[in-house]
Input
Amino acid sequence: MFDARTIKRFKKSKASIFGLGLIAAFLLLALLAPFIAKPQGSDPYQMPQSGYSSEPQKPSAGKIFGTTESQYDLFYGVVWGARTAFKIGAAVIFVALAAGLIIGGLAGYYGGWADEGAMRLTDIILAFPGIVLAVVIVAMLGPGIEKVIFAIAAVSWPAYARLFRGDILTVKKQDYVTASRLMGAGDFWIFTRHILPNSIYPVVVVASLDIGSVVLTAAALSFLGLGAPAGYADWGQLVAMSRNWILGAAGSPFAYWHTLLIPGGAIFFFVLAWNLLGDAFRDVLDPRQQ
Output
């Protein structure tokens, strides 16, 4: 798929280069987080707190991004929040993709009652809005990053299962699969050597490009108070801390602009980067777009 012609066409897309550059910048920020914002406690994801006043501090020499309410360091939260974003995105995609491949693979390859049962289960889950179902799951399990990862993965795998199943239904009818079966090959050999390599690529690409939407959903859960615990370096929680200060102060509506725009901007550019990269992959790899 990624031959010289495809790479050349990818390089011609300014949007794809911009998106890839943004992702690289966020990745570098996440990797260098311990050096950019040095941890001050046993838990590096816990934001330093310089006081307990409810009024945020404006950006200054000592606090270049200022503080949130309850005096959490906003710069520290944004830097380590990049690690949180990648951690949530990678973990959710891994769990959801693994579940989708297993369930979709069994349904597509064996068909019959396995296919019927798996597809009806996916229909039930897809009948609910994903964010609403995720809220219900987290509310039942309690707040926490691990609970958020589980909840989002639980509502994400059906889409991968259906996509993988559809690709398998096409691939298993190919002549090379029939020939392998006539030569006496078993199900495990056929699936691992023929079915999986020729049907897994589209679903893996789609899953990898869903990281932006996963992080946006996690931020929404944190904004509702169902995500990270208090003081945890998470962009969604930082935005939630700005709710009482969005309108600023009397006579100064932009007095506390930093509490909203800085973490909100981090979320915006992170999600934008993955969306731009996803559009670029669609344009480059989808033959219908060529």
Summary: The chain has a mean pLDDT of 87. The chain has one domain: 29-289. Residues 29-289 form a domain with the MetI-like fold fold (CATH 1.10.3720.10). DSSP finds twelve helices and no strands in the chain.
